[in-house]
């Protein structure tokens, strides 16, 4: 009998109810044993996932957005446990990159009949991330988005507009990768393992989850007008034509802050994390996670 555990973020569900009664219609009771767990606070999904792994689960399903997926999948790196995904978040960047359907019935079919894909796992200072991480403007956007309290696309647009008004890039960083060392004062420093950030918005549509490489995007400091042009070009999928955007592919990189500010944050898979160290190391572990995909 296949043990399948679902870890559900109820906030991400937009009113959807996923419990054992709701799921029973999708799984043959003679072949699957279903357990549903609810994540109630930040970090809870990780605790629940660890308990499931220790109990010998076969498939662990993250039901939520990229943040929930990160908490669950982080416990499955370099294990034989399969990750299933039911996209219930606002952006769903990793699910989009893996072409996992949003429709519940189709997502359940993927969990039952999907193929296993081994994908790369990125690490930042020892912390796994699966879609992307960054410092700069995207941190400000996520901070404003969280403060807004709504999980809709237009709330994201409002957060972007507010961030354009408020953001200023003040601190230089020293960057090392591909045997190069240079300094920059970036509007955005973005490292991606996947194609899509969420809402089908992307800076790295050529990225692959299976190439053993990370896609790095460095955008030099921009005027407010240039930020608006960048947003328009991203929506039109023309951002590769902007001169102030630099693209690189790397296996690992390091960067360090030159200033004295200790109140620094990064985002990883859409969640904010305080940076306690001035130096940041990013690397990739090839094929370290087994995911069920269509």
UniProtKB/TrEMBL annotation:
Name by which UniProt lists this protein: YegS/Rv2252/BmrU family lipid kinase
SMART domains: DAGKc (SM00046)
NCBIfam families named in the record: YegS/Rv2252/BmrU family lipid kinase (TIGR00147)
Transmembrane segments: none
Domain of life: Bacteria
Limits of the DAGKc domain: 1-128
InterPro entries in alphabetical order: ATP-NAD_kinase_N (IPR017438), Diacylglycerol/lipid_kinase (IPR005218), Diacylglycerol_kinase_cat_dom (IPR001206), Lipid_Phosphate_FormReg (IPR050187), NAD/diacylglycerol_kinase_sf (IPR016064), YegS/DAGK_C (IPR045540)
SUPFAM superfamilies: NAD kinase/diacylglycerol kinase-like (SSF111331)
Entries under PROSITE patterns matching the protein: DAGK
Biological-process GO terms, alphabetical: phospholipid biosynthetic process
Protein keywords: ATP-binding, Kinase, Nucleotide-binding, Transferase
Species annotation: Flagellimonas olearia
Single GO term (MF): kinase activity
